[in-house]
Specification:
Layout: H1 3-11, E1 15-17, E2 35-37, E3 55-57, E4 75-77, E5 95-97, E6 110-117, E7 130-137, E8 150-152, E9 155-157, E10 170-172, E11 190-192, E12 314-315, E13 332-333, H2 337-351
Parallel strand pairs: 1-2, 2-3, 3-4, 4-5, 5-6, 6-7, 7-9, 8-10, 10-11, 12-13
Length: 362
């Protein structure tokens, strides 16, 4: 089949099915709106081609050259595209479903809102990609390279990201729900208003990172490094944080309700207005920490160390303080009379017998 014949068939609305296009030079060709099924593009030259709005079903693109091609609004279903070259291509609003893109080069692509559904991207490169939102659902991303890429509103769902490369990346409102980032080195990166719900962040290195307004609800963070982070107004409820290092971090107005913080190190951290209700802080270090208006109501603080901490209206209402080292308790609010009264009133109401009022007959 010649390039001219192929173009005529596409423009005539014919489906290109079970055709071998190996060896064809299709550079710069207009194949937009094409329907391709079970066709072989292995090693085909498609640089600068216009494929906008085309659909590819179970096609082969191994080693194909698609640099600077227009793939906007394309759909690739169950395609084999290992080691394909897509550098500088337009991938705006493209969908890849169950495709093999391992080793593919997608550097500097214009991706818009691109979606990767259950794709293999192992060893692929998206260095310098530009996007509005990249979505990775159920993908394998071993050694996938995102170096220098801004990833606003990116979504990673149930992805293993332990070996992905994020050097120099910038994340804004990104989602890492139920992802495995354990052991990752993410030092100095910016994560603005990101979601790490139920993620595995054990021994993850966030030192010096910007984590303002991030949500870590239910995350596993044992042994994580959060030294010198900027983590204002973050959510850490139910987080597993034992042994984590948070020295000199800024966590003002963050929420730590029901967090497990045993032996965590908050030395010299700024914890002003933080809420630690029911948190388990046994043997945690708060030395030299700023705890102005912090609230440890109902927390377990046994054997915690508060030497040199700034305490001003710091609440420890009904907290467990056995063995807690607090040399100067002048700034503590040990028990709030108003809260005690409210709790007692609630308890009485709970056990008061119900009364019924009978209406008399008129």
């Amino acid at each position: 089949m010649t390039p001219t014949r192929l173009q005529a068939m596409v423009k005539g609305g014919q489906e290109i099915r079970e055709r071998s296009l190996r060896g064809l030079d299709l550079r710069g060709l207009d194949l937009s709106g094409g329907l391709f099924a079970h066709s072989d593009f292995t090693g085909v030259e498609l640089e600068g081609a216009n494929l906008e709005g085309s659909v590819f079903d179970e096609c082969r693109f191994e080693g194909a050259a698609l640099g600077s091609a227009n793939l906007a609004d394309c759909v690739f279903n169950a395609c084999e595209a290992a080691d394909a070259g897509l550098d500088d291509a337009v991938l705006r609003d493209v969908t890849f479903h169950r495709c093999d893109l391992s080793g593919a080069s997608m550097q500097r692509v214009d991706a818009g809102v691109a979606s990767f559904d259950h794709c293999a991207l192992d060893g692929a490169s998206l260095r310098g990609a530009v996007s509005e939102s990249l979505i990775f659902y159920g993908c394998t991303l071993e050694r996938t390279d995102f170096t220098g890429t801004a990833l606003p509103k990116a979504t990673f769902y149930q992805a293993d990201l332990r070996t992905a490369v994020f050097a120099g990346c910038d994340f804004d409102k990104a989602i890492f729900t139920e992802c495995d980032l354990s052991g990752q080195v993410l030092r100095g990166l910016r994560f603005e208003s990101c979601q790490f719900t139920d993620a595995d962040l054990r021994h993850c290195d966030f030192e010096g990172a910007s984590l303002a307004r991030c949500n870590f609800k239910g995350a596993l963070m044992e042994g994580a490094n959060l030294r010198r982070v900027q983590a204002q107004q973050c959510l850490f409820p139910f987080v597993q944080f034992a042994g984590a290092a948070c020295t000199a971090g800024v966590f003002t107005q963050s929420i730590w309700i029901d967090a497990k913080l045993e032996k965590a190190d908050f030395s010299s951290a700024d914890l002003e207005q933080c809420i630690f209700h029911r948190a388990r802080c046994g043997e945690a270090r708060f030395t030299q920490a700023r705890l102005t208006y912090a609230d440890f109501s109902y927390a377990d603080l046994h054997d915690a160390d508060f030497h040199g901490a700034t305490l001003m209206r710091t609440k420890v209402h009904r907290a467990l303080l056995e063995g807690t080292r607090i040399p100067d308790r002048g700034g503590l609010l040990a028990n709030e009379p108003e809260l005690f009264a409210a709790e007692e009133f609630s308890a009485r109401r709970r056990f008061e017998p119900l009364t019924t009022t009978k209406r008399g007959s008129s």
